[in-house]
Amino acid sequence: MTDTQAPEATGTAAWAAALLSSFAQAGYIRAEPPILQPAEPFLDLSGEGIRRSLYLTSDPGGEELCLRPDLTIPVARDYLASRRSGQPAGFCYLGPVFRYRGGKPSEFLQAGVESFGRQDRAAADAEMLALGCEATAAFGVTDVDIKTGDVALFIALIDALKLYPVWRRRLIKDFNRKISLAKDIEQLTLAASPTHNEYEGVLAALAGSDRKAALALVTDLMTIAGTTNVGGRTVAEIADRFLEQSTLKGGALPRDALQTINRFLTIAGTPDEALRQLRALAADARLDIDAAIDQFESRTQFMKTRGIDLNTVRFATAFGRGVDYYTGFEFELHRKGNGDDPLVAGGRYDGLLTQLGAATPIPAVGFSIWVEALTQLRHQIAARIPGANS
User: Fold this and answer.
1) Quick one: DSSP state of residue 230?
2) How far apart are CA 129 and CA 339, in angstroms?
3) Residue 291 main-chain phi, psi, to 5 deg
4) What is the CB-side half-sphere exposure of residue 240 using CA atoms within 13 A?
5) Domain for residue 23, yes or no?
6) pLDDT at 57 (0 to 100)
7) Which of 170 and 54 is assigned the larger pLDDT?
8) Considering only CA atoms, which of 107, 87, 116, 139 is closest in space to residue 376?
9) Three-class secondary structure of residue 216 per DSSP
10) What's the predicted TM-score (pTM) here?
11) What's the confidence (pLDDT) of residue 4?
12) Which of 146, 151, 154 is nearest to 128 (CA)?
């Protein structure tokens, strides 16, 4: 099957083709990355946990390859290898992806849009959401729930609280992998309870240290011991683990910081309602997070300009898509009243292209479309409304 062929009825191909045509009219170039991809970027950026979902093979030289599990990373890699790398450029795509999904088909169609190099982040974010809404409408699905969040707000909050670096890394990592952080905050706090540890001396020596000091101490200890790694872990990884344990042993999150984080995580509503709550929190807690809030407000204004009814948009500070490389705006479009798998989902990932080899950071934002889920809804609508499938 080629990228332009669809596995279902002819109507699916026609609707998808019309969708790509609309993206092309909006200035997005068709991208067609190879189906066979290096596995390393997916494993590095998503963790070894994704290995269970990949269809893996290797070439005669021993390089591990996989059938592409999504199209964001392949499109980003092709962009970086092109003459347009570093310049503003937008791409659209449609093709099969391959990922083990339990009882669901492992091969399925994915369409989407990726935008690279735009410095007007708020406008680009709003454009992605608007195009995502247009995508569902192209399949006749207009009654959708719009869920949004912004990991950049959480990062700004954690930075403003001036926590130990290990707390910062752990909280942000945990936030990126969870839909809600409330229970995880509780678990992290309980984890700080005093327990016996066979490395009490090292932990005591690291108490209050920063990452640089911890790395120096662990490096010295391992040099004395005549080893450079333990169980496959590098010196830096071991130092991070010791520093994390030292910080947890030293006590839970400061009470005022914990209260502020918990209050932050309760903020939800329309974008305008959330904006008021964010401004109030920043003022009450005397937090310097105005830049992140201003970006949020600017994006909200661009959404209005794009014709998005903000009363239909649900924003929650605790919302996240569980993707490690997202750095800002995140969104999902669901069938009205159905909170299961999204029809369209995406977000901002400004750090990804650097991780893929870009010499300098390149802003990036995009979204994916689950074509077959939209096709099924299209058929349901057609069955209820005579002539809707024409």
Assistant:
1) B
2) 18
3) -65, -45
4) 11
5) yes
6) 94
7) 54
8) 139
9) helix
10) 0.80
11) 42
12) 146
Q: Supply the range of the domain harboring residue 23.
A: 10-156+262-384
Which of 213, 233, 253 delimits the end of a domain? 253
CB-CB neighbours of 312 under 10 Å: 13
Most confident of 115-124, 209-218, 224-233: 115-124
The strand pair at 144-150 and 89-98 is best described as: unpaired
Q: Measure the CA–CA gap between 84 and 348, rounded to whole angstroms.
A: 20
What tens digit of pLDDT does each residue of 318-358 get?
A: 998 877 889 999 999 999 877 678 999 999 999 999 999 99
Q: Angle, nearest 10°, between helix axes 235-249 and 165-176?
A: 100
Last residue of a domain, one of 218, 253, 288: 253
Rounded Cα–Cα distance for residues 321 and 176 (Å):
7
> How many Å is the Cα radius of gyration of the chain?
23
* CB-neighbour burial class of residue 219 (10 A; exposed 0-12, middle 13-18, buried 19+): middle
67 has which bridge partners?
36
The stretches of the chain forming alpha helices (DSSP H) are: 10-25, 40-46, 72-81, 121-138, 151-161, 165-176, 182-190, 200-206, 211-225, 235-249, 255-265, 271-285, 290-305, 352-355, 371-384
Helical segments of 191-343, H only? 200-206, 211-225, 235-249, 255-265, 271-285, 290-305
Same domain, 147 and 171: no
Q: Which helix (H) or strand (E) holds 345?
A: strand 344-348
Q: How far is CA 30 from each of CA 27, 33, 114, 278, 341, rounded to the nearest angstrom?
A: 10, 10, 10, 39, 26
